[in-house]
Amino acid sequence: MASSTSADKPTVAFFGATGGCSNATLALALKNGHSCSALARTPPKLVEMLSAQNVAESTITSQLRIVKGDVKDISAVKEVLTHGDGVADIIVFGIGMIVGKIEDPKICTNATQNIITALTDLKPAKKPYFVNISSTGISSGPRDVPVLLLPIYYGMLRTPHADKRIVEDLIQKNAQVFDGFTILRPTLLTSGKVKGVKNVKVGTEQKPALGYTISRGDVGTWIFEKLVIGNKSRWNGEKVTLTY
Fold it and tell me: What is the spatial distance between Cα 223 and Cα 217, in angstroms, rounded to a whole number?
């Protein structure tokens, strides 16, 4: 049996590629032969982060196209989305705010709208699948946050969560530009040691998995295993909670 080549594997466009979750997904995608693109305001930072995850320089050079720019620039967004004669098969959206350093309280909303606008303009024959890294604490269903975390969620995280809630609404209202979507709602993110996907509790909006924390590395690995190379249809249209 012939081994698969990068041409046989889904292409992936990353927004927020220096974020811990999406960066972990990007590293795995590159190591496994996927052709990727990423928007970065500071490309050397992105390369350094990938090198720290043992992604070979030759792999970064041959499989990753980095677009230097800002997500507010629609032309840069289109460049990241474009792969060959169409657009990427999958979009991983990992843009977020740094608590305590909020420069733009609507960064996620504006970025998502620009991606929707770009896709509307590009009119690809094959639409991309959209993976959005959101958060627990903004559910319309049963409570998905332990009681002890509620003061944090409704205090210091109020502004970024308001932004993420609008993003989720935008995705659902503009679902026609995508070939499906999954909204991920990890609990409090850490930079701690990964435990492996088998140790991740998975829930949905109606039946959320309750927990306190999860490593960014495990969120990124879950995205790669379940949504990049796995059966995306299992999670299409779902709001998935991830925690330990």
Answer: 10
| 136 and 145 Cβ atoms separated by less than 8 Å | yes
Instruction: Write the burial class of residue 238 (CB in 10 Å: 0-12 exposed, 13-18 middle, 19+ buried).
Output: middle
Tokens of 59: 């792999």
Please give the model's pTM, rounded to 2 decimal places.
0.95
pLDDT band, very low/low/confident/very high, at 6 (cuts 50, 70, 90): low
Count of CB atoms situated within 10 Å of the CB of 113: 16
Cβ-contact 14, 79 below 8 angstroms: no
- Tens-digit pLDDT profile for residues 100-125: 677 789 999 999 999 999 999 999 99
Q: How far is CA 67 from each of CA 46, 80, 113, 150, rounded to the nearest angstrom?
A: 11, 6, 19, 38
Residues 176, 37: Cα–Cα separation, whole Å: 23
Do residues 180 and 238 make contact, with C-beta atoms less than 8 angstroms apart? no
DSSP H helices in 123-214 = 150-153, 158-173
- Rounded CA-CA distance 31/29 in Å is 6
Residues 6+ positions from 66 with CB-CB distance below 8 Å: 37, 38, 39, 40, 43, 46, 47
Closest CA to 132 of 22, 3, 5: 22
How far, in Å, CA of 243 to CA of 240, rounded? 10
